User: What shape does this take?
Amino acid sequence: MIVRIMGEGQVRLDDGHLAALNALDDELLAETRAGDEEGFRRTLGALLDAVRRLGVSLPDDSLEPSELILPSPDATLSEVRELLTDDGLFPG
Assistant: This one.
């Protein structure tokens, strides 16, 4: 799966990592719905760090279509709320 982190670039992420990322995504969804700014900030950072750590960065000139777009690390709670689906940021 190709994941874009807004403002940073793309990462190729093995589907085997989705279960661990979905746990963080579920936490982020709950914190966003509750308006928990502190929890939201902490979990968004952890989610993006995990994607960076588990994935392989693609070159800046790569033109791969992104299957998933994640917010930038400095995104606000309301900006992320607009990106969320019923499943969160990650499908499933």
